[in-house]
Design a protein that fits this description.
The protein is mainly α and 220 residues long. The chain has helices at residues 2-43, 53-68, 71-77, 79-86, 92-116, 120-128, 133-167, 174-184, 189-219. Helix 1 (2-43) packs antiparallel against helix 2, helix 1 (2-43) packs antiparallel against helix 7 (133-167) and helix 2 crosses helix 5 (92-116).
Length: 220
């Protein structure tokens, strides 16, 4: 018990900071690139906007290929690319590269689904008023899809928490790395239970907060 406490006192805060860093970089990348790709997928498949089978097929294929790879395999495949981008394949910054690449296509598909759920009648009514496509995208499509986009972001956040823990198995740092190094390899079950509890709390809080924000936008 004392050894567990010593490990947590010396390593726990650092691991939490590393996990927070991985999550921040990954989620910002998701928000920017995932939203953009999801929007492209929707616009190129919707006859009211910019239907383009070739662009849609290329973007959809790339998204599907990345999503079909288990994250642990993607981690290994991307080691050379991660080293090129981050200068190393170890640590939380390096782990953010494969995390982002895995999470962006996942979020993009959810974003596409959120846009597809927007009532077509609302979009058609906006077109009938003579509004420009850019205005409809900003003021109609995004506004109407906002609750779905927030839920998509929440689901992605929960998934990335699991990915970040898995990244610890290849030296990615963070809470997952702490659990594996001490909880698994050194048989410190107390460390394993504490890290598991922290991950559960983070996920539950993230889900609760996401649901609250989505509900607020739904009421509007």
């Amino acid at each position: 018990m004392q050894e567990t406490m010593n490990i947590l006192q010396s390593e726990f805060l650092k691991s939490c900071v590393e996990t927070a860093q991985m999550m921040a970089i990954t989620m910002v990348a998701c928000l920017v690139f995932g939203t953009l790709i999801g929007l492209i997928l929707h616009l190129t498949s919707n006859p009211m906007f910019f239907p383009n089978r070739i662009v849609n097929a290329i973007a959809g294929t790339i998204v599907n290929v990345i999503r079909s790879l288990p994250f642990i395999i993607l981690l290994i495949i991307l080691i050379p690319f991660t080293r090129l981008v981050a200068g190393t394949n170890l640590g939380s910054t390096a782990a953010s590269v494969p995390l982002a690449i895995a999470a962006i296509p996942f979020f993009a598909r959810l974003v596409e689904g959120a846009f597809s759920e927007v009532d077509k009648g609302v979009v058609e009514a906006a077109f009938s008023t003579g509004a420009s496509i850019s205005l409809i995208i900003r003021k109609v499509l995004f506004v109407e899809a906002m609750p779905g986009l927030i839920r998509a972001f929440t689901v992605t956040f929960v998934s990335v928490i699991g990915y970040s823990a898995m990244a610890g198995s290849v030296g990615g740092g963070g809470i997952g790395d702490l659990a594996i190094r001490y909880g698994y390899y050194r048989y410190q079950s107390g460390v394993m239970w504490v890290t598991a509890a922290v991950l559960v709390i983070i996920v539950q809080f993230g889900q609760w907060l996401g649901d609250k924000v989505a509900l607020k936008f739904t009421k509007k």
